[in-house]
Amino acid sequence: LNSFTPEQPGTRIAVFDVPDEGIKGIKGITAVSDIALVNIEGAGMIGVPGTAERVFATLKTAGLSVTLISQASSEHSICIAVPREAADKAKAVISEAFSDEIAEGQIQKVDITDNQSIVAVVGDGMAGTPGVAARFFSNLGKARINVRAIAQGSSERNISAVIDSDNVTKALRAVHSGFYLSAKTISIGVIGTGVVGRTLLEQLRGQRERLRNRFNIDLRVRAIAKSDRMLFSDVQIDLSGWQDALNSSEEALDLEFFEMHVCAEHLPHSVIIDCTAEQEIADRYSGWLERGIHIITPNKKAFSGSQAGYEVLKASATAGHTHYLYETTVGAALPIIKTIRDLIDTGDRVHSVKGILSGTLAYLFNSYDGSKPFSEIVAAAKASGFTEPDPRDDLSGMDVARKLIIIARELGQEIQIGDFPVQNLVPDELKKLEVEEFMENLSRYDDQMLELYEKTAKNKQS
């Protein structure tokens, strides 16, 4: 039956069992708003026969309908959900009925929690199917939605949860996608539109539909930011023309607004992808993780900073039930970090790690033989995207140092910058310049680099 669109499939109503074709037996997910919770609580209720009967008899006499009932086995409290307009009356009549118990302290309080909604999953096939409740509440938990009350009948055909009304849209989306009744929607914000950021956005544009069809994931890039401005959309940005749209945007960069927009209340999952190498962005990771925003980044700054800061980062992820993925901080696309984790988790002991920790330095030194100025080779490498946004991170040895720290911490070591020597190839006069100025002035030190090269080559021969 489909009253509004008769030509389309509708709901089958029958007196006999119909094979359930839904995932895990779920046929529908719904919400009831404008609900209030009335909670009766007190140690004097424990083991006292007739308490629940008195509550419901009182409500019946007052002509009040109860939408949901929840009581734990401790019998310490009874929680009922009623329409919002009936909450004050329900509290009043219950308080009057139990006035003696309240006066004697056997019942501590009768209170109201306003602005609530009920989210329910229903389906005939739910009965006897293990894991339905687990998935239901897991999806709510992953979306950082608190459940205030729970109800399920012995028929197992309905599970209801009471949540804050502000979260009802997010809850419906999270549960709906969690049971694969719709695509799992992920709100994405990308910071940084250099070589890495541009390539990532192009990949998302090209692969979005394939990922949706194959994995049932709806990847929505809703915000893009660069150093001085940002672009955002309530639904998703058209990635076929994002560069022109961003360049013409009049929205100045505001990281707090960016965060709020990506972490939208109506979308259950949010991710910020940091494609910069900026410390200012890395310093915000802990707050984002704690708020429930997942982080994906090639930025090494946060994961190679002070040991104390690293511990805060991990604690924030635990508190926010979030993930921070930084595989590309070491080894580019190679699964270095995952391999190390798997070795450690399976009981192996890592004695040493060997490799070329800087593809940039390897490229520069393999290309440099003294026939071309060193500054020209650095400029070509930067233009090709082989270096960090600021090549001094490579030439100073700091990029290698940060990778060493990240690897060492994965191995369980407590280590930070300053605990081991780093040779810096950046002249002192160029250390504090802007990147453009550094590149313009690097040629002044080509002779110095040639002298160092010849000295090293001579020492190697001897």
Walkthrough of the structure:
With 462 residues, the chain is α/β, with parallel strands linked by helices. It has three domains: 23-178, 2-Layer Sandwich (VC0802-like), CATH 3.30.2130.10; 184-334, Rossmann fold, CATH 3.40.50.720; 359-396 and 427-461, Dihydrodipicolinate Reductase, domain 2, CATH 3.30.360. 39% of the residues lie in helices and 17% in strands. It is built from 18 helices and twelve strands. A six-stranded antiparallel sheet has the order 2-3-1-4-6-5, covered by helices on one side. It has a six-stranded mixed sheet with strand order 9-8-7-10-11-12, with helices on both faces. The longest helix is centred in the middle third of the chain and has 21 residues, at 195-215. The chain is elongated. The termini are far apart. Residues 18-22 have low confidence and may be disordered. Keywords: Amino-acid biosynthesis, ATP-binding, Kinase, Lysine biosynthesis, Methionine biosynthesis, NADP, Nucleotide-binding, Oxidoreductase, Threonine biosynthesis, Transferase. Its cofactor is a metal cation. Pathway: Amino-acid biosynthesis; L-threonine biosynthesis; L-threonine from L-aspartate: step 3/5; Amino-acid biosynthesis; L-methionine biosynthesis via de novo pathway; L-homoserine from L-aspartate: step 3/3.
Secondary structure: elements and pairs:
Blueprint: E1 28-41, H1 51-61, E2 68-70, E3 77-83, H2 87-97, H3 99-103, E4 109-122, H4 132-142, E5 149-152, E6 158-164, H5 168-178, E7 184-191, H6 195-215, E8 217-225, E9 230-232, H7 242-247, H8 255-262, E10 269-274, H9 279-282, H10 285-291, E11 294-296, H11 307-320, E12 324-325, H12 336-345, H13 359-367, H14 374-383, H15 392-395, H16 398-410, H17 435-441, H18 446-461
Parallel strand pairs: 7-8, 7-10, 10-11, 11-12
Antiparallel strand pairs: 1-3, 1-4, 2-3, 4-6, 5-6, 8-9
